[in-house]
Amino acid sequence: MADTSDETKLIMEERRRMDIKVEEITNVIDGGSNNTTLRRKITDMIQNDAILSDMDQFYKTEEEKYSRGIRRALRVRKLDVDFNDTTTQRILFIATGKEIGLPIHSGVFVPTIMNLGNQEQVEKWVPLAVNFNIIGTYAQTELGHGTNLRGLETTATFIPESQEFVVNTPKLSSMKWWPGDLGKAANHAVVMAQLIIKGESYGMMPFIVQIRDLSTHLPLPGVKVGDIGAKFAFESNDNGFLILDNVRIPKENMLSGVAEVDAEGNFMLKSDPRVLYGGMMLIRVNLVDSQAVFPLQQACTIATRYSIVRRQGSIQSGGDEVSILDYVAQQHKLFPLLAASYAFHFSSRQTHELYKIINAEVKNGEFSNLPELHALTAGMKAYLTEKCLAGTDICRRACGGHGYLQASGFPNIYLQQLASVTYEGENTVMFLQCARYLMKCMSGVINGRKIVGIPSYLNERMSDRCHATSERDLTNHDTLLQCLKHRSSFLIRQAKEKIDSLTKSGKSYQDVWNITSVELVNVARAHLEYYIFSSFLQVIQNMNASADTKGKMGELCSLFGLHTINENMADLLRDKYLSAKQARLATEAELSSLSRIRKYALGLVDAFDFTDKTLMTCIGTYDGNAYERLYENAKRAPRNKTEVNEGFYNQLRPYLLKGRDILEGTKSKL
Amino acid sequence: MADTSDETKLIMEERRRMDIKVEEITNVIDGGSNNTTLRRKITDMIQNDAILSDMDQFYKTEEEKYSRGIRRALRVRKLDVDFNDTTTQRILFIATGKEIGLPIHSGVFVPTIMNLGNQEQVEKWVPLAVNFNIIGTYAQTELGHGTNLRGLETTATFIPESQEFVVNTPKLSSMKWWPGDLGKAANHAVVMAQLIIKGESYGMMPFIVQIRDLSTHLPLPGVKVGDIGAKFAFESNDNGFLILDNVRIPKENMLSGVAEVDAEGNFMLKSDPRVLYGGMMLIRVNLVDSQAVFPLQQACTIATRYSIVRRQGSIQSGGDEVSILDYVAQQHKLFPLLAASYAFHFSSRQTHELYKIINAEVKNGEFSNLPELHALTAGMKAYLTEKCLAGTDICRRACGGHGYLQASGFPNIYLQQLASVTYEGENTVMFLQCARYLMKCMSGVINGRKIVGIPSYLNERMSDRCHATSERDLTNHDTLLQCLKHRSSFLIRQAKEKIDSLTKSGKSYQDVWNITSVELVNVARAHLEYYIFSSFLQVIQNMNASADTKGKMGELCSLFGLHTINENMADLLRDKYLSAKQARLATEAELSSLSRIRKYALGLVDAFDFTDKTLMTCIGTYDGNAYERLYENAKRAPRNKTEVNEGFYNQLRPYLLKGRDILEGTKSKL
Which ranges in chain B are annotated with CATH 1.20.140.10? Predict the structure, then answer.
């Protein structure tokens, strides 16, 4: 029997001691034990597959990662699973360690054709793409234009003579720039371009453009395409540039689910053009799970486990060194994040449900709830990517210097997350889109309209003061809900007043909006925090679980609420909704919650049920054997393949030999 | 004449329009025009040197970066400059793009011997090291122990028989882990180890241990050494591990400036043991400049310039697209950081001055001001690394997606900075050390002692209310100083009350400290913000510059103060020092300041006077030519050397040929 390390003993002892129904919480997180079973089944399939089980991401070159991504993309399609099931999709993504190539081909190109193509187009292109007979990308952003779609400069001009479109990126700044899978892989692209017919512009439309030859894989005439170069991470993706110099495509390559051009060049709208942007909402809904919430849960898992096995200093004079998780400052870093990662998960699931409902309405031609969904998905994208990114880095720092090692697992998690705050809609723009909707709601309230949906709290007459008189009162869910509601409502009203007063002073709408933008971003944040908290509450109320598990989820919900309030206390003090004394109680209530959660924090991260392979960490594995794993991993470093590093030694040798002579001389003199 | 791009025209036009004395501000930043001249002279030397001028960091492998670092380290010593001059050292660091190898050898090993060795040891080892005849590292942290020095497990046991020490890392967790230059380069190390004589421990002492043979460069018997593996960045450094299995060193290898062991094994203290830690203070003072403040200034430079040339959307209905710097939300991201980067620079210079004074006192045996210096350097290290890191990422995001490209320059800057929050003292521990000193001062005040130095504001009787009634009042330097002073004082007193009340309830000192730690970290932050603001004020008061420049520096100082207060408004509202109305005025005052600074923000970043080579950016160069540079740089990417990527094509070819057949079949059917 191999020796068990001190670190493993420590974490196993902690597991024995804690009182928490880990498996039940796992089921709750998965959305039912059936989903847990499915997830474990798929995870096992992957971890038993020769190709997919290799998730070792350490010490790989960019090109190794790229090739491997392609290999894994081909392989994953052969699994016997239901690729159309969203739960399965999510499980696959996590269980494969996110290291699957051609993500834009599979995740955007195919769905775009399905959503925006007509029946004929879907039947023609989708099977080709799904079987990798063509590889596609989605080319929207340009070198000089991103989030502002109306500013895009690529054109597709109708040529009635040949029944073609000529697609053109007229300037340097209008080359397509950033699309994933474009640089080296794609031979087709859905290109978003301004449709021009007889000199008149009809707005952005999607066109399928072939860019590379299917026999030689060389760019077609008029096409320049390549990789945009090194990034923070995502080495397994070839984000690309694309210059189109009067490239002609047949008329039937305009995706025509939404609008059509007939042979004479008549433009015909077939459905609401907002459908064109429906895909962006789905992408945002999905990406917050995969690129924000899961990474934060992984970061919490690693940091919490490591904080148990890492010992430093003693709290009692002369006592043994203690786990750093026993320090309140450490708990204050990690537990609010742990609570948030639960809150984010459950609220994100609620958003998914809402998306399904409203999307079904839209398909039936009912658009009245679309603005709410659009505002919510934009806001949640911005809020969750921002918070989860910051949270992951707090977890990393909570692991001290070792968090800076690739072996910690953090670089993998964090560097991908870093991209999430700017892609798929720059976050400030997203917050402002959310705020714009809230301002419209507020105008509605002023004009006597009853608001439905999430911001319906704007209809309510709220109490002027919070009546909490104890820590316990402030931990109460309803008290916290009222605080968050009050804060959001206060900020919305205040921003509205500023807007109205600036408008009265004669400023233009755009000017007013610009001047108020800093406040409006905060408005959106406050609203989203209310939404997340209330979603978490709803989930708990409807939860099929033991009282013990419900209690623990309730504790996390309180901590999320308290932490949010404490971080934004000025808003509640300004409005005098909370007094200075209540503010003090809220701080103490948060600290008290930390010491309760300390007892079962390990169970809360174990419940996420990430496998060691998925976490790819030496310091946060289930067995806690941090130091042995770090040392074993260091020995594998390419630099350690030889004792003597040539890059060093070839340059320094003459100097060192002189050093030897001097030191030996010194010695011989003695 | 080559065409000038739209972007270059835009930035040149902005420069013509602005009214700011850039060169004068550069002189102020440099600390006098002489320093500006020296800096430019050294920068020219480097940029004209065949080896040192190559600062291209894009698309290099780890080993290329490592070898290059060594080559540059050897080369830089040959420059005709005064290496002992601290200004020169700083200039060299920036002007070489921070890409100089063997930084721990030059920056820590040599100074440690100079500080902690006796005269004989300095004369023996320093020339060897400076001439690269030996390469050394400083080995303190262990795999299982970092910031808590007393927990280190490495031992050096005196052997009277042979007049040797036997140095030992007894367990896996006690191997040295992290020291820079250790993995592959160092043949000597200053090893920090518990001195043991006749079974008794005398605390941590420094020992010079040879670890590799000077002829073969192979590890000596009893030594295991290697690289600890991949990190977020710092690929040009071989951070290493070191296992010492009963390695014997001669008695004279204990660095004996502070304490000595005689032939019989008697331990003799020669000076105050706190001198042992003096080196850490100097490292902290220096690193905040080089690893925190300079990077933030660089990030501000890139983001501000790019925000001028990047255009998106229009503010006036139907108007042209505008520079994104015209958006208030963008100004609110960047200008407070720009103000902070000035504030940090000047306050850091004040800390340098204080270090020089107190260090001179210490050399004369006067230790009374050492605790203040220790608290200040620890606190500043934590505060500035934290703020500058966060600031750099805000700048990166302000550049949208392009900030994620290596070509933006941000990955280089940011990934190095990421390490700064945990190395040389984990930040939470550093904040708590600063707070501990402040709590001692507060105890002093309560006991009627008059406090001297920075926290002397604790002696003052302060006003209960701020009397500002306008935006203008709140922009006033003295009002802001009183706010920051009041806040710090309030938090210190509140923490002290909590500590006293917990102590009275019977809790141990350690328990009380742990329970109050979250508040104490905030205490330290508030104190440091007061210190930074007041230092900036002092610098402005003594500044040898025109009224115009003083006015602009004053505006930055106000913005720093206002932004700090707005971010921490709850502290001032809780104490009722500010009213809700005043809070609102403070927000508006900050926003007003942004529109004033907008007019000359470009000049403020130009004044940092970074060369394009040092910035290593495509999007933030002096000429603003962002898009052409991005495209040129993309074309250089290794992946673009061939049109067809083998890693992709070899795997997909059969699928694609089938695609060709299907599509041609489709066509022929038409």
Answer: 278-606
Q: What is the pLDDT of residues B566-577, one digit of tens each?
A: 999 999 999 999
Rounded to whole angstroms, the Cα distance separating B574 from A579 reads: 8
A168, A162 Cβ separation under 8 angstroms = no
Under-50 pLDDT residues of chain B? 1
Domain B127-271 belongs to what topology? Butyryl-CoA Dehydrogenase, subunit A; domain 2 (2.40.110)
Which of A58, A175, A397 minimises the CB distance to B422?
Answer: A397
d(CA A62, CA A240) in angstroms, rounded, equals 15
> Residue B419 and residue A406: Cβ atoms within 8 Å?
no
**Which residues of A, range 553-592, sit inside 8 Å of B by Cβ?**
569-570, 573-576, 580, 583-584, 587, 591
- CATH classification code of A136-271: 2.40.110.10
Q: Does B386 touch chain A (CB under 8 A)?
A: no
Q: Shortest CB distance from B637 goes to which of A219, A230, A658?
A: A230
Q: Which H or E run includes B390?
A: helix B370-398
What is the value of ipTM here, to two decimals?
0.97
- What tokens were used for B430? 């550093």
At residue B579, φ and ψ (nearest 5 deg) are -90, 170
Q: Chain A within 8 Å of B459 (Cβ-Cβ)?
A: no
B654 exposure class (CB count in 10 Å sphere: 0-12, 13-18, 19+): exposed
Q: What is the pLDDT of residue B2?
A: 59
Measure in Å the smallest separation between the Cα of B476 and chain A Cα atoms: 22
Strand, helix or coil for residue B556: helix
Tell me how close the Cα of B646 comes to any Cα of chain A, in angstroms. Answer: 8
Query: Residues of B596-635 as b/e, b for ≥16 C-beta within 10 angstroms?
Result: ebbebbbbbbbbbbbbebbbbbbbbbbbbbbbbbbbebbe
Question: Which pLDDT does position B468 carry in this prediction?
Answer: 97
Query: B555: which residues sit within 8 A by CB, 6+ positions away?
Result: B593, B596, B597
User: For residue B668, what pLDDT is reported?
Assistant: 61
**Sheet containing B176-177: order of strands:** B176-177, B240-244, B223-227
Q: Which residue of A has its CA nearest to B495?
A: A584
| Domain B278-606: assigned CATH number | 1.20.140.10
Q: Looking up tokens 């390469």, which residue turns up? A: B135
Nearest CA distance, A272 vs chain B (angstrom): 24
Which one of B120, B184, B572, B594 would you mutate to disrupt binding with A, by most A Cβ within 10 Å of its Cβ?
A: B184
Supply the pLDDT for residue A2: 59
Look at the block and give the residue holding tokens 């206390």. Answer: A569
Which parts of chain A register pLDDT below 50? 1
Residue A628 known to be catalytic: no
Nearest to B286 by CA among B152, B169, B424: B424
Predicted local confidence at residue A1, as pLDDT: 42
Task: Report the alpha-carbon distance of residue B531 to residue B269 in Å, rounded.
Answer: 36
Sequence-ordered list of residues with C-beta below 8 angstroms from that of A565, at least 6 positions apart, any chain: A480, A483, A484, A487, A572, A578, A586
Which residues of B have a catalytic role annotated? 424
Q: Is the CB of B170 inside 8 Å of chain A's CB atoms?
A: no
Nearest-10 Cα torsion for B127, B130, B134, B137: 120
Domain with CATH 2.40.110.10 in chain B: 127-271
pTM: 0.97
Query: A597 and A555 in contact (C-beta within 8 Å)?
Result: yes
- List the structure tokens of B427: 């930040």
Helix (H) or strand (E) holding B267: strand B267-269
CA distance B225 to A547: 54
Nearest to B405 among A228, A635, A644 (CB): A228
Say yes or no for a CB contact (<8 Å) between A405 and B58.
no
Instruction: Please list, in sequence order, all residues whose beta carbon lies within 8 angstroms of the beta carbon of residue A668, skipping any fewer than 6 positions away.
Output: none
| pLDDT at residue B61, rounded to an integer | 87
Q: CB neighbours (10 Å) of residue A269?
A: 10
